[in-house]
Design goal:
The protein contains two helices and six strands. By secondary structure, it is mainly beta. It has one domain: Pnp Oxidase, Chain A (Roll), CATH 2.30.110.10. Strand 1 and strand 2 form a beta hairpin. It is elongated.
Length: about 120
């Protein structure tokens, strides 16, 4: 994702708050050069200085088998709006789309413990 410097979120707490507020996200994996995406609710937390994204795949979802390959991408996105050139100082400006999104990459691990899975689902 292209991010102009003036739009880059550098405050980790701001990014975490955004992901927690807009926690229904898209997880993307790649297998055999073919991307797969699933839309899931995520629990966003911090542990030991790391941001932890936790969610649940249905066992029948074939993408669940791809989670441990590479680094999955989770896309959090919500507020967006069309910006007309009439809002700029120069009338020769082009329209744009204003939005907020966070792309989170990381290693996936599977939760095998029945107790931990039950806690997550609760």
């Amino acid at each position: 994702m292209y991010i102009p410097k003036q739009n880059l979120i550098t405050d980790e707490q701001e990014a975490i708050s955004f992901m927690q507020r807009y926690s229904f996200a898209t997880i993307v994996t790649v297998s055999n050069e073919v991307p797969s995406a699933t839309h899931l609710p995520f629990v966003v937390s911090q542990r030991d200085g790391k941001i932890i994204l936790t969610s649940h795949f249905a066992k029948a979802n074939p993408q669940a088998d791809e989670l441990l390959i590479g680094n999955p991408l989770v896309i959090f996105a919500e507020p967006h709006a069309y910006i007309s050139p009439k809002h700029y100082e120069s009338e020769k400006s082009v329209p744009t789309w204003n939005y907020i999104a966070i792309h989170a990459y990381g290693k996936a691990i599977l939760i095998d413990s029945p107790e931990t899975r039950a806690q997550l689902l609760e």
